[in-house]
């Protein structure tokens, strides 16, 4: 019996497809997420919108909080560690967290290197804005990739940009003649073997989710139609007027993303969406998507 | 039409419940066998199907949405008519199960007389892969168990097709098949072939 193999880790990520993973900050929110049909919850102390407002160093959550959330729901529980913070990741694995997000939403602990994710039995998800970054993270052992988007803004434009960038590159790699793959790998800082794999298979080797700025059922369905495998919703649910209703609506919009009647029906009367941030007015140094190397 | 049509197994159409989970891989596996496969999200998508695969994924999500959009009832009616074979893998097996002692109120089909326990091996770090001996297959099957349930007991008329150590992991009762592992994560299509035959019979 072999535990924690790469296929066991990437295979687990496959089970999230067509689903919604929701940020929660306490056991009660986790229960609401589960009742709404979330496929997993992301346990954290502050949602990205609050991290933005409050500032300071954002770190891994208190293990006590994570344990409470694990105890409250039967669905998988994810948690975030800082980029490059191997010890936070070890703690999360020891707590029995089902998936770790090595996340740019928290303050990076290392400005040059990410965690060696092959060294862990627990699977990791990492953010990526373009193909080279996605393949570097997979090369380090990430079992799942997500867009970075621009977390905590309620503005989907960056998630769309990253999706177009990564999936466009996949289509391009597929169409390249073989002799151009090595130079492509060099120019994008991507592992050659993974560029080769994408060329042969026409997709990323792991599940690819949308994240960062998804606030409405229509946003979620848009990301699915663009070719994403599923959706993370961070601040968008519990920073809105009626979290219970919005959470349910986003789950249903992801399942029925190609059925405008259903998406229209669930979009009705959801109360206020989270207040968004227009990214044209967000200073460059405050953009979380720039974190990661 | 596509070239695979010429070696299609029988002439059956198989659905894959696509509410959430690993439906795409099941669909690809069926298509690799030359079987016509369709995604099922609403009752109308069941028209003309001989079989339905309910994939792994999150059993609470799948059960809730299958009930809400009328799929649960529509599948139950077709099973009672004898017109539909159903195979549940992992979360799909939970959906088929008559009893889930820890979560008695969890929405599910419940037509298969088995008792299951969700996440029976622990959390994700306890997920594993191992070879299995399966009744009717001459060589071992490499199985992935991911936050897998176990089948604690089977009722009358349910045949056990595979065990992992002492735990029941694959069962059949008439046209219902339930397994706790993930054949769609492998390149081994033997159980898919068995199911297509079951659906065509």
What does this structure look like?
The complex is a heterodimer of chains A (293) and B (201). Chain A has 293 residues and is an alpha/beta fold. Chain A has helices spanning 6-14, 27-36, 48-54, 63-72, 86-95, 131-139, 157-175, 181-188, 192-201, 217-225, 235-238, 243-255, 260-267, and strands at 2-3, 20-24, 40-43, 77-82, 99-103, 124-128, 144-147, 207-209, 231-233. In chain A, strands 8-7-6-5-4-3-2-9 form an eight-stranded parallel β-sheet. In chain A, strand 4, helix 5 and strand 5 form a beta-alpha-beta unit. The two termini of chain A are 36 Å apart. Chain A binds chain B through residues 1-5, 7-8, 11-12, 14-19, 34, 37-40, 74-76, 93, 96-99, 121-123, 251-252, 254-256, 259, and chain B through 18-25, 41-42, 56-58, 60-61, 64-65, 90-91, 103, 118-119, 122-130, 144, 146-147, 182, 185.
H/E element order of chain B: EHEEHHEHEEEEEEEEH
Distance, first to last CA of chain A: 36 Å
SSE topology string of chain A = EHEHEHHEHEEHEHHHEHEHHH
Work out the radius of gyration of chain B. 16 Å
Q: Specify Rg of chain A, calculated over alpha carbons.
A: 18 Å
Alpha carbon gap, first and last residue of chain B: 25 Å
Question: CATH topology of chain B, anyone?
Answer: Rossmann fold
- Share of β-strand residues of chain B: 25-35%
Given helix and strand content, the structural type of chain A is: alpha/beta
User: If you average the pLDDT of chain A, what whole number results?
Assistant: 95
